[in-house]
Amino acid sequence: MSAAPLSMGLLTYGSIAEWHPAGLVLREACGKARGLCVARGVDLARVAIGYAVGVGEVPVTFLGMKSVEEVDFALGCVTVEEGTKAIAEELCGDEYFGLLRGEPGWDWRKDVDAYQDAVRRV
């Protein structure tokens, strides 16, 4: 089971909440992914959702949606498209995850564990 394929906003073009538990390395890698998607003319959220639902060994992905427009958008991310844009998004997804794996400390679980430890100390 997978949840939060947009990583609580990291994989969108919106602002990231100050309380977000991601560490600096992960935030920087997501910033590189945003730049890569902008350069390629593709939507980062579309790439992230498409990648998350396409991982064969993870049969279920939960995605929170608050409007019919967001449901339509999410459905469009998992629908196979023909043409150049779909290929570019697929390549961008591979490059995005390549960017994260290339960074030391990219593992999200370590950032969450550190965040939870900090909250317990408060």
Please explain how this structure is put together.
With 122 residues, this protein is mainly α. The chain has one domain (2-121). 58% of the residues lie in helices and 3% in strands. It has 5 helices and 2 strands, in the order βααβααα. It has helices at 24-40, 44-54, 68-78, 84-101, 108-121, and strands spanning 2-3, 61-62. Strands 1-2 form a two-stranded parallel sheet. Helix 1 (24-40) packs antiparallel against helix 4 and helix 2 (44-54) packs across helix 3. It is globular. The N and C termini lie far apart (31 Å). The mean pLDDT is 76.
Task: Summarize the topology.
Elements: E1 2-3, H1 24-40, H2 44-54, E2 61-62, H3 68-78, H4 84-101, H5 108-121
Parallel strand pairs: 1-2
Distinctive features:
globular, 5 helices, two-stranded parallel ribbon, 122 residues, mainly alpha
Query: What do the pLDDT scores average to?
Result: 76
- Count of helices? 5
Backbone shape: globular
Q: From the alpha-carbon coordinates, what is the Rg to the nearest angstrom?
A: 15 Å
- Main beta sheet, described? 2 strands, parallel
Number of strands: 2
Structural class determined from secondary elements:
mainly alpha
| Termini separation | 31 Å
Strand arrangement across the biggest beta sheet: 1-2
Outline:
By secondary structure, the protein is mostly helical. The chain has helices at 24-40, 44-54, 68-78, 84-101, 108-121, and strands at residues 2-3, 61-62.
